[in-house]
Amino acid sequence: MSSPTHDPAVLAAIPVRPSRESFAPPRARLFPPIVWAGVLVVAALLAVLPLLNLVFPAGHALHISAFTIALLGKFMCYAIAALALDLVWGYTGILSLGHGLFFALGGYAHGMYLMRATAAAQGADRLPDFMNFLDWKAYPWFWSFTDHFPYAMLLVVLAPGLLALVFGFFAFRSRIKGVYFSIITQALTFAAMLLFFRNETGFGGNNGFTDFREILGFSITAPGTKAALYLLTLAILLGALVFARGLTQSKLGRVLTGIRDGETRLMFVGYDPHWFKLFIWTVSAVLCGIAGALYVPQVGIINPGEMSPANSIEMVIWVATGGRGTLIGPIIGAGVVNGLKTWFTGVFPEFWLYALGLIFVLVTLFLPRGIVGLVLMLRERLQARRAA
Amino acid sequence: MDRRTVIKQFAATAGALAAGGVSPLALAQGSGPIKVGILHSLSGTMAISETSLKDVALMTIEEINAKGGVMGRKLEPVVVDPASNWPLFAEKARGLIAQDKVSVVFGCWTSVSRKSVLPVFKELNSLLFYPVQYEGEELEKNVFYTGAAPNQQAIPAVEYLMSKDGGGAKRFVLLGTDYVYPRTTNKILRAFLHSKGVKDSDIDEVYTPFGHADYQTIVANIKKFAAGGKTAVVSTINGDSNVPFYKELGNAGLKATDVPVVAFSVGEEELRGVDTKPLVGHLAAWNYFQSIKNANNAAFIAKWRAYAKAKNLPNAATVVTNDPMEATYIGIHMWKQAVEAAKTTDVEKVIAAMGGQTFDAPCGFKVTMDKTNHHLHKPVFIGEIKADGQFNVVWKTKGPVRAQPWSPFIAGNEDKQKI
Amino acid sequence: MHFLFSLIRLLARLMAVVSDAWRRQVSSASGVLRPIAGLVLACALLAVVPQHAHAATATPIPQTLLAPLAADDTDERLAGIAALGELASPAAAAVLDALGSDRLFATESGRILIQDAQGAVSDPETGETLALPEDASSISINNRLRVGIANALAAQQILTGDVPTRLAAVRSLQRDVDPERAPLLRKALEQEKDPQIIALLRLALANIDLVSEDSATRLSAAQALANATDAGVKTVLAARLVKEADGSYVEPDASVRAAVRIALHRLDIHLSRIEWLGNLFYGASLGSVLLLAALGLAITFGLMGIINMAHGELLMIGAYATYVVQYLFRQFAPGFTDWYLLAALPVAFAASALVGMALERSVIRWLYGRPLETLLATWGISLILMQGVRSLFGAQNVEVGNPSWMSGSMVVLDGLVLPYNRLVIIGFSLAVVVLVWVLLNRTRLGLFVRAVTQNRRMASCVGVPTGRVDMLTFGLGSGIAGLGGVALSQLGNVGPDLGQAYIVDSFMVVVLGGVGQLAGTVIAAIGLGEINKFLEPYSGAVMAKITILVLIVLFIQKRPQGLFALKGRSVE
Q: Which residues sit opposite C409 in a β-bridge?
């Protein structure tokens, strides 16, 4: 090798700015083709189901009951929430035990609009029932404008978003990490749950919001509306998946995985993790809120119990079961765990908690990468066997 | 707890019938067992009150089946556990009606649970029998209320407290769990007290959440409030919060002769978990007490004891009966009578046939289902707690009282008084 | 400074009164039954000697006097009770006592029969013992009659009976401002020797004198009442200051009004002081419960850095162990049921410790270095444990009764009520803390535990068996949780969901207190309890709790390592 030259003429001839792209890893595709295929097939199957419900009458072999449609819609909302949680946990390594709070806040925001619509349908100037038994004569200030659908939708995004922004700003700034952070998210959701259980807070207390009649003029119990909500949820789920995938495959995504794998090292390299964490935390909260907003009209009730720590911890297990850090995994996990729950509580109700507990233990001990990890491992074994 | 293999059976049947083109709904009209849903919390904070209702319902169904069933068809109970979780109540109700195709549901205790399931019953046009005292302000076509409305429990109790025999109370502490039933009942009571000349400064409203366990400060505040005049406490605390409340009351030495506490959701069942010796003299208002002496009640109690022993229920040796159990018993029998009168389990026809049904109830009176307002005419009893956990009746109405679901003490109900 | 001295003086007085009360062994029964209990005692003492000649020497009470007791009209019955009270004989007192305890029976024909504490039924008029007839039903009473019985009995006991009986009798008569009582009270005052009872008698008389015709009497009564400590006196005083419709006061004399105002003011000061001390006590009680709940968690978290989400269930296992021990005592040793708690302590400790150690060996050991996974795995275990308990014991709550020495309360400082069960639990939690301190600082195991907490690798190099220490520490922490469960079983409900109510609170205490020292947990627990109870009168229970949670979250932002952090050099 020649010794480095100090001749200015030679040095000037060397191109000084190498292209950034050459240092960056090759841009990954959004999904490998097989995964695309799988996603599209499943999406198509799911999209067909409401048609089966509407077209065929009850009793027909191909009829899907409204109950199943509502159930699947609920599962898909949970899948969106799991996806949101995966963004912060699977990719950034922040375990939040309070994401149920954002889910519920989005649900409550939408619920306020629906309650207004119900009360208005019963008569002009009528207040929801829970305000009547509190002897309130008018809507409190935080209910203003919620009879306008666009504002309610804005609130669905702003309520969880602002809370996440403020909480995250202070939490990440003080460098709270790991278990401590998880504990304080749990405390946050618990405090919010206690607050919403109070009737004086103005969100229906223990009753929550229920008895919705119409949304945007359509009757909420009509099969057509249910089908529309279902398809909307499916669309948003797919959109969220694509969005999240794009986010995690970008350079931002690389920084996030860097935060997860070695935050101190990342800081020494020159990144300030605070803003990245705050960004993904807020995005995740907003996505969760949207999931909650879709959940409420399909399930027909929202109650402070959604904010209980147990609910949030269950969300974490959906992500863990499916496989965190994979985006497809949490969706599968949400579907599998909730499907098991519905089946168990119907047939063997007293064994459901054993099963759920076992899922927690087995997944953490033996399946750290979840179902997706299991599939990948099997595929590797198969490939290794074929290669050998 | 009964295992539900119904889904499997139904799926198989539905599949077979669908292939043959027969709707499974037709089954309801024809032969085969009639499915009856039981929707009570078997775990969680309300299990202390609701589990016995499930057992009494099963006992009544067994009794009816032993006598030949309804229209010759056996009743088949379908039991679910909504676990004191109100959204789960709605989900389970929907499952019972839409999946299990029950003809009627007997269930709910808290008004929250009832309000949660109401939209489901309205949407799917099914029938609910609600056996617990509640706050009124409701009259739904799909619900029959076999428990007390405020004028059959709360108002007479407060009137008794204000009377000389009841202690001549001048100040009132309205203590309740924070949900719709205590809130509405207290609203009604406040208006009633105003009408009797009691000022707002002599009324103190306090609410605690479900499952609250630390009543030290509240009991201390009651004592402080009582310093201002003869005070009585009206308790609408629900569920197992009653146990720590009564324990604190007993330990703090707040005697019934100084500050009597009348409770609307505490009966013989809730007192089983408490040492009742320091509570002697505190009151409860119901439409039935186990200590009422008549042949009907003796038979009811004996049946229940035998059933508990036969089914090995926990603490079978010390089981008690209470008002919601009696109401469940009455409700199931009245439904049976209505179905036999209408000759079908079709909901509309049964609703029409329910009005006017009568039943010789264990409380010693013939209770009647009102022709129009879906409520029972029930007598009112006020009882004092005895050291053995039973109640001693200190006051009662002469006969059954007609329910006023729309309380005249709430503004806006003026034109609903005829109902 | 002045405040500090008065606080110390208060505490000294508190301790003096406490020891005084213990010496006198104030009974724990309710006030209404106390005079009755005292009378039963007196009767028992009187009746012990002439046991067999009981029927012969007891004064017969004619059925005509007894008949009104079973009447329908309450006023008639009250008159009957008062008449019996005036008889002032032990037999009449026995009848009244039986009426108050559901031991007086009426047959169909109207004959009244009395049943004594042993169950023997006799006729009070003739004295003959007989079996209880089929048609006899127990005569029931209501609250108004209870008051009448208590007053009638108190009227007797105020002159006879021993010191506690007389004290109880005066206390129960204090509420009764019937002027007809005055002669009785004056008679009692003449022959009374005990200074405490004399003071109370004077106050009771002052109560009555406050409404007398003579204004001088009223003035002296108002001045005497300045020493009153009973909250009921406030009503009487305030009634004198009520303004009538025409603008004049109920009390015409201005000097009397002034004296009444002074008395009210002093009473208010006394009552607010009692209230403040009461809040202090409630906070200490709540803090002791939090301490017991969180201590085990602090040890395991401090040592191994894992948050055990199944900690609440270990509390629950301790509580259920207490239930089982109580059940066994009731079945096999009914005479000793009062002492089941002492047996329950080691059983609960062992049960929870075993479960904890099993947990550690089977699940947690594989997850070292992965705290978040441990959190999830232990949450799963908690679900399994909860459902297991549900299957074994049923989903409903089980009844765990307070032993008799823990029921009731003692009254100190003229008005502060301290329930025995809470006092015992405060003492117990302090004992547990001392025990843990001794264990950690004076035993070999404790030395190992501290070594591993500070630097695991180094400790292992020096020869400390870290695996075994981990298991034993987890067992210790779980065992303490079991002890906490025993305490919780005495205060509230015991059900499968017991642990869920305390898990968030335990975390808050541990996170706030830090894991450096035991002192952190103690101070955090007591501090949180006190803050909660001082906030509660203003904001209600729920808002107080929410405020505390928010404050903790904010505090942790400022100081993530908690109050007492482990000193050491580390980047994180």
A: C419
> CA-CA distance, C502 to C78, in Å (whole number)?
50
User: Cβ B43–C407 below 8 Å, yes or no?
Assistant: no
Tokens found for residue C518 = 């035991």
Q: Which amino acid, one-letter code, is at C253? A: D
E strands, C108-248, in order = 112-115, 121-122, 129-130, 137-138
Identify the sign of the CA torsion A352, A355, A360, A363.
negative
Segments making up each domain of chain B, as ranges: 6-149+294-377, 151-291+381-416
Assess whether C140 and C285 both reside in one domain. Answer: no
The neighbours of chain B, by the rule of 3 or more Cβ pairs under 8 Å, are: A, C
CB contact at 8 A, C319 and C284: no
**A358 part of contact set with chain C, CB < 8 Å:** yes
Interface partners of chain A (CB pairs < 8 Å, 3 or more) are B, C
C441 and chain B: CB distance < 8 Å anywhere?
A: no
Tokens of B288: 């039935």
DSSP B95: I
The tens digit of pLDDT for each residue in B316-327 reads 888 999 999 999
Please tell me which residue of chain B has the smallest CA distance to C237.
B228
Beta bridge partners of B360: B366
Q: Cβ contacts (< 8 Å) between B94 and chain A: which residues?
A: 67
Distance from CA of C238 to the nearest CA of B (A): 8
- List, for residues A25-83, the tens digit of each pLDDT value: 555 666 788 888 888 898 888 888 888 877 877 777 777 777 788 889 999 999 999 99
| pLDDT tens for each residue of B209-267 | 888 888 999 999 998 898 888 899 999 998 888 888 998 888 888 888 889 999 999 99
Best residue of B41, B257, B292, B390 to probe chain C, by most C CBs closer than 10 Å: B257
In the listed set C448, C470, C503, which residue is the last one of a domain according to the structure? C503
Q: Among residues C153, C177, C201, which one ends one of the domains?
A: C153
State which amino acid sits at residue B17: L
| C112 touches C105 (CB < 8 A) | yes
Which pair of structure tokens corresponds to residue B55? 């057992």
Q: Give the CATH fold of the B6-149+294-377 domain.
A: Rossmann fold (3.40.50)
How far is CA A201 from each of CA A136, A147, B80, C161, rounded to the nearest angstrom?
Answer: 12, 19, 32, 57
For chain A, say whether B138 makes contact (Cβ under 8 Å).
Answer: no
CATH class of B151-291+381-416: alpha beta
pTM for the model stands at 0.84
**What three-state secondary structure class fits B224?**
helix
Size of the B and C interface in Cβ pairs below 8 Å: 148
Does residue C549 lie within any of the structural domains? Answer: no
Question: According to the model, what pLDDT value does residue B28 have?
Answer: 46
Output the CA–CA distances (angstroms, integers) from residue C429 to A352, B84, C499, in the order listed: 37, 33, 18
B229: which DSSP letter? Answer: S
Is the Cβ of A310 closer than 8 Å to some Cβ of chain B?
no
What residues 160-219 of chain B have any CB closer than 8 A to a CB of chain A? 178-180, 183-184, 187, 207, 209-210
Residues of A in contact with B1 (CB under 8 A): 349-350
What phi and psi values does residue A214 have, to the nearest 5 degrees? -140, 160
Task: Indicate which of A95, A361, A365 best probes the interface with C, i.e. most C CBs within 10 Å of its own CB.
Answer: A361
Cα torsion angle, A373, A375, A381, A386, sign: negative
Beta strands in C361-514 (DSSP E): 409-412, 416-419
Q: Is any Cβ of chain B less than 8 angstroms from the Cβ of A203?
A: no
Residue closest to A155 by CA, chosen among A110, A115, A196: A110
Residue B383 backbone phi and psi in degrees, to 5: -125, 150
Task: Quote the ipTM score.
Answer: 0.85
Type of residue found at B107: G
Tell me the pairing of strands B283-286 and B381-385: antiparallel
